[in-house]
């Protein structure tokens, strides 16, 4: 609605998100047109326009007010300067209106910063002529977008907050991997020191392919640590277990939303997680290629 727009805007659009509080405005876009440069030009008297050279000269019609400055000075004295400046700033539409009213009513009311003044044909007329131009003047317009980052982040978190079916105590953020700040977690199955070298190797491999990750070697069951990473919105978890120490070295990869797991070669996992995070492959693609693993996570382990 016009009365809801800022004074500088000729049009506005909003983007809203549906939340538990109802529809919330998150983005506002204002079409400022050429308001800013136009106001500067009016205040300084300097025309602020870009010029574009034309491929060939062209004829254009020029409409301008012809002020009888001597008569205006005699009639309005100290206000003559303001009137002459106002006449010079009239656009084509206003000049057409001036000419029409002079022909029909014999007078025109000019609005200025100092008030309104009635002008007659003896004081001003309108002249139309042809002019050859070699450049086109353009006053740049501005589209101004405004984003409410706090509202957007809240909406993202609310829309991705989930609870495990049958267990409302287990909550998680189902943030898409491309949005999640942390792409995966590296979890040793236990505090066994023989896992350390594999955890270090995995962390280095993930860093080398620009995958953000965290190592969680804290105490607690693997199920509890899975639940912890789920609450943080981490989409994938790599687990180092006793089978990792055997040749060929393998690890398990877990997907947060489905809690499904596969076993795959340790040498491949960093590239797989990178491709998952970049939406180059899907989790179903991974499940089709690698064998499922279903031993580590269970309800008892998760609650331990």
TrEMBL record:
Q: Which residues form the Anticodon-binding domain?
A: 183-275
Respond yes or no to whether keyword Signal is given for this record.
no
Main localization is: cytoplasm
The record's annotation in Gene3D superfamilies points to: 3.30.720.200, Anticodon-binding domain (3.40.50.800), Bira Bifunctional Protein, Domain 2 (3.30.930.10)
- Which GO cellular component term is one of those annotated? mitochondrion
Question: What CDD domains does this protein map onto?
Answer: GlyRS_anticodon
Q: Which InterPro entries match?
A: aa-tRNA-synth_II/BPL/LPL, Anticodon-bd, Anticodon-bd_dom_sf, Gly-tRNA_synthase/POLG2, tRNA-synt_gly
The Gene Ontology terms for molecular function here are: ATP binding; glycine-tRNA ligase activity
Q: Which UniProt keywords apply?
A: Aminoacyl-tRNA synthetase, ATP-binding, Cytoplasm, Ligase, Nucleotide-binding, Protein biosynthesis
Where it sits in the cell: the answer is:
Cytoplasm
Biological process terms from the Gene Ontology for this record are:
mitochondrial glycyl-tRNA aminoacylation
What is the protein named? Glycine-tRNA ligase
The species this protein was found in: Danaus plexippus plexippus
């Amino acid at each position: 609605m016009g009365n809801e727009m800022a004074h500088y805007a000729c049009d506005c659009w909003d983007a809203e998100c549906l939340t538990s509080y109802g529809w919330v405005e998150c983005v506002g876009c204002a079409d400022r047109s050429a308001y800013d440069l136009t106001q500067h030009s009016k205040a300084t008297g300097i025309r602020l326009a870009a010029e574009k050279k034309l491929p060939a000269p062209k004829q254009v019609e020029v409409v301008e007010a012809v002020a009888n400055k001597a008569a205006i000075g005699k009639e309005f004295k100290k206000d003559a300067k303001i009137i002459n400046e106002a006449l010079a700033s009239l656009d084509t539409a206003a000049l057409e209106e001036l000419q029409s009213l002079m022909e029909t009513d014999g007078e025109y009311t000019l609005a200025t910063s100092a008030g309104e003044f009635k002008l007659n044909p003896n004081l001003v007329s309108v002249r139309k002529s042809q002019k050859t131009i070699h450049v086109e003047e353009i006053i740049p317009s501005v589209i101004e977008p405004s984003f409410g980052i706090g509202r957007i982040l809240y909406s993202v978190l609310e829309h991705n907050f989930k609870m495990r079916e049958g267990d409302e105590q287990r909550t998680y953020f189902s943030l898409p991997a491309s949005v999640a700040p942390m792409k995966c977690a590296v979890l040793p199955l236990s505090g066994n020191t023989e896992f350390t070298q594999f955890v270090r190797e995995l962390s280095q491999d993930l860093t080398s392919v620009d995958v953000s990750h965290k190592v969680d070697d804290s105490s607690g069951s693997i199920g509890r640590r899975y639940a912890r990473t789920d609450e943080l919105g981490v989409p994938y978890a790599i687990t180092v277990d006793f089978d990792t120490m055997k040749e060929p070295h393998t690890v398990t990869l877990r997907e947060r939303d489905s809690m499904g797991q596969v076993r795959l070669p340790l040498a491949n996992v960093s590239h797989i997680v990178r491709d998952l995070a970049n939406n180059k492959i899907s989790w179903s693609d991974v499940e089709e290629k690698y064998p499922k693993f279903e031993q580590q996570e269970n309800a008892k382990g998760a609650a331990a």
